[in-house]
């Protein structure tokens, strides 16, 4: 109760958090039945209680039993069910006939989807069809999509929108540790002395977790360091705000490692026992060329060679690259280097949406590995997720082109396991990945993909350089199927629109950022012929002749699918909790071993999978050692110049979530933030004679857009930088962004391209 009281006090420091008293004031009277669920929005995975009465959802409040949020909710979570009252809800299937959408029985629409998919395969081959799913898909939905595409049809043309937000975290974990997802948990917040936020506006993007950090700051003096390219609400609440030039975080991270070594702060025993050193790829482009191939290979190095490499990253040299003072670089390094301070690093899109996103993830791990501050309560690197099941579905189930429910398609052992559980011939699962998200829509544009089915996502708002991909989706040569809850710019180009069930209109499971799997039961009936995405996939699979592979019942398919999926992860390294456990409590963290969640992986004190008789065991790698990577600073592929003198940065705001298809239909949130805007630094605004609210034109090499200016409002970018949120489908900022990406993770960089700013 003392901790909850302190959290409540911390939450009052910035808008957007509702604590228990506020939530109770807004609840309706009546005989309300409360049912637990995870929140529908971000990857924090807050526990909510949904109130239903007479078959309708009438209220939401935070679940005090959830260790994630302890009853707190942000404004999005509290108001989430209000979007179900939107008048434009998709309730029946729509089929485009002679350019007009015609309401069609759902069974007839599914017949058409199956026949078109089958016809495309017969005419053009199995790689001419594709599915594009989501980090918002439930675990069963992602599982049947993977089984359908890879096990039934036999194509790896499956990818998801988590490629746009979390892929660099995946490749970062895999290259450094050989195993994906954070080794710690949210309880780290209760133990850490210092929080370093790497390009991460947690006050707006993950406000409930940020309130927990503020509680530790207020209660015991924990420090918050905001390392960012713009001043935000997070900066204002932090103890220290350090601003850096876009892309230069690579150089600063190396400078911190330089300082750690120079000052003798290396945890020598830890490094010698548990780490190895690699020199990574460098000649690999920026993803702007279709189907680019790497031109060199990584190689083993030693500590001496790594130390020599860091000589190019002294604080004095890096100050010139980054704009971060020598004093501030040493300030950050000193906290990491202090053996008496526990440090947690948090990041999200700032590091991951980066043309060198894998490298940046590696560099943060380098800092924690050099100091041994990892896999312990209050010590560790932690990549936050943006979608409710980007971990549980995209990363764990494997809805990326290269992934399987366990492992990767390139590994024969992993393919054989999938074939055994799926009861399909081993040879049917292709051994090579095909199209990642950006390349998938490039393939649509090139005419290689003739059929694409999107579920739970809105790519014609969220893709980078959407101005390239919209025309490809509109071509008659590609048959487009869209499953969604509401109309979107993506459904506008569909040949078939399938009405999907929302969150609480079906049962499901999500997996959040801390490896917590959470289950919920169906609470209300959806309107019309709305149908869960998993069941629509199963129905299409049956129509295509794969019914024997999908022997699930409509009433109980979620439980049947989850129990089948659990077979992939049996054992101490990734065991999933039984469904009866997940039904009885607000989730469980994997590995779930002997009836207990494993909160800190790779630490023998907490992790039963450690087997090397040492304190730590990084068992994801064959030698049991984590890798410290040599990763240099490299400039962005497109930088400001005389013609386009500003940096363009994009992101979110606290009121809206992703493309706004749900939150813009919640009246209180839409009223609070009705449209997008462009933030300018006050000096730039003064020079261009732009005042707050003035119309501004943004122009890049890919397009232009007009929107209102925001000067000295919520956020303030550094000089010669602008920031635009991407939730507003009437102001498609992603038409202007560059479709460059990290060549290792294939995750696009939405944070850096060159733009010109003109007053209208």
From TrEMBL:
Keyword presence, Signal: yes
Signal peptide (residue range): 1-20
This enzyme's EC code(s): 1.9.6.1
Cofactor note: Binds 1 molybdenum-bis(molybdopterin guanine dinucleotide) (Mo-bis-MGD) cofactor per subunit. Binds 1 [4Fe-4S] cluster.
Keyword Kinase belongs to the record: no
Pfam family, one: Molybdopterin
Coiled-coil parts of chain: none
Binding partners and assembly: Component of the nitrate reductase NapAB complex composed of NapA and NapB.
Family, similarity comment: Belongs to the prokaryotic molybdopterin-containing oxidoreductase family. NasA/NapA/NarB subfamily.
Function comment: Catalytic subunit of the periplasmic nitrate reductase complex NapAB. Receives electrons from NapB and catalyzes the reduction of nitrate to nitrite. Catalytic subunit of the nitrate reductase complex NapAB. Receives electrons from NapB and catalyzes the reduction of nitrate to nitrite.
Protein's recorded name: Nitrate reductase
Species for this entry: Aquimarina muelleri
């Amino acid at each position: 109760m003392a901790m909850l009281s302190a959290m409540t006090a911390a939450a009052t420091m910035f808008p957007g958090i509702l604590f228990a008293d506020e939530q109770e004031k807004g609840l309706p009277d009546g005989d309300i039945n409360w049912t637990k669920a995870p929140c529908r929005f971000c990857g924090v995975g807050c526990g909510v209680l949904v109130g239903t009465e007479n078959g309708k959802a009438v209220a939401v409040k935070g679940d005090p039993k959830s260790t994630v949020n302890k009853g707190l909710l942000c404004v999005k979570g509290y108001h989430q069910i209000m979007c179900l009252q939107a008048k434009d809800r998709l309730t029946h299937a729509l089929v485009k006939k002679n350019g007009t959408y015609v309401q069609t029985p759902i069974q007839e629409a599914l017949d058409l989807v199956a026949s078109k998919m089958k016809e495309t395969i017969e005419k053009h081959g199995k790689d001419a069809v594709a599915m594009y799913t989501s980090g918002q898909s439930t675990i069963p939905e992602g599982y049947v999509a993977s089984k359908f595409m890879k096990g039934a049809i036999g194509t790896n043309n499956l990818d998801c929108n988590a490629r746009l937000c979390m892929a660099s975290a995946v490749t970062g974990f895999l290259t450094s540790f050989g195993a994906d997802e954070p080794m710690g948990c949210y309880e780290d917040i209760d133990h850490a002395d210092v929080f370093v936020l790497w390009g991460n506006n947690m006050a707006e993007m993950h406000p409930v977790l940020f309130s927990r950090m503020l509680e530790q700051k207020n209660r015991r003096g924990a420090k918050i360091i905001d390392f960012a390219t713009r001043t935000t609400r997070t900066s204002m609440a932090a103890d220290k705000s350090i601003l850096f030039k876009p892309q230069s975080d690579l150089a600063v991270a190396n400078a911190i490692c330089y300082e750690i070594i120079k000052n003798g702060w290396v945890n020598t025993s830890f490094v010698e026992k548990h780490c190895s050193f690699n020199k990574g790829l460098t000649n690999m482009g920026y993803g702007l060329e279709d189907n680019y191939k790497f031109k060199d290979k990584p190689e083993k190095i030693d500590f001496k060679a790594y130390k020599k490499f860091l000589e190019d990253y002294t604080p004095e040299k890096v100050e010139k690259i980054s704009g971060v003072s020598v004093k501030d670089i040493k300030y950050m390094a000193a906290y990491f280097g202090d053996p008496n301070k526990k440090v947690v690093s948090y990041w999200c899109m700032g590091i991951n949406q980066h043309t060198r996103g894998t490298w940046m993830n590696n560099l943060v791990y380098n800092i924690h590995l050099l100091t041994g501050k990892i896999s312990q309560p209050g010590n560790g690197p932690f990549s936050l997720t943006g979608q409710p099941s980007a971990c549980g579905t995209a990363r764990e189930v494997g809805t990326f082109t290269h992934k399987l429910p366990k492992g990767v398609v390139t590994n024969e052992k992993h393919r054989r396991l999938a074939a055994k559980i799926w009861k399909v011939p081993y040879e049917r699962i292709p051994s090579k990945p095909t199209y990642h998200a950006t390349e998938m829509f490039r393939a649509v544009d090139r005419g290689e993909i003739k059929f694409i089915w999107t579920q739970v996502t809105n790519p014609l708002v969220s893709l980078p350089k959407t101005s390239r991909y919209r025309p490809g989706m509109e071509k008659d040569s590609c048959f487009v199927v869209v499953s969604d809850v509401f109309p979107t710019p993506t459904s506008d180009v569909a040949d078939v629109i399938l009405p999907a069930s929302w969150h609480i209109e079906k049962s499901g499971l999500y997996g959040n950022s801390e490896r917590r799997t959470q289950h919920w039961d169906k609470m209300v009936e959806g309107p019309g012929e709305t149908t869960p995405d998993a069941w629509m996939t199963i129905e299409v699979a049956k129509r295509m002749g794969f019914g024997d592979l999908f022997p699930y019942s409509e009433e109980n398919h979620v439980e049947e699918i989850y129990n089948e999926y659990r077979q992939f992860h049996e054992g101490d390294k990734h065991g999933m909790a039984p469904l009866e456990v997940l039904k009885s409590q607000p989730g469980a963290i994997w590995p779930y071993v002997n009836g207990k969640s494993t909160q800190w992986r790779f630490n023998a004190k907490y992790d039963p999978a450690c087997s090397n008789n040492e304190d730590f065991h990084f068992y994801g790698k064959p030698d049991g050692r984590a890798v410290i990577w040599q990763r240099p600073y490299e400039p962005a592929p497109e930088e400001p110049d005389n013609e386009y003198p500003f940096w363009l940065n994009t992101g979110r705001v606290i009121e809206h979530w992703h493309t706004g298809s749900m939150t813009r239909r919640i009246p209180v949130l839409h009223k609070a933030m009705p449209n997008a805007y462009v933030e300018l630094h006050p000096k730039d605004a003064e020079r261009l004679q732009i005042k707050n609210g003035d119309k501004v034109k943004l122009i890049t090499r890919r397009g232009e857009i007009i929107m209102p200016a925001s000067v000295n409002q919520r956020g303030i970018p550094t000089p010669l930088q602008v920031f635009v949120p991407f939730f507003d489908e009437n102001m498609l900022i992603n038409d202007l962004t560059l479709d460059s990406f990290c060549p290792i993770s294939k995750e696009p960089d939405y944070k850096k391209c060159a733009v010109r700013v003109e007053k209208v």
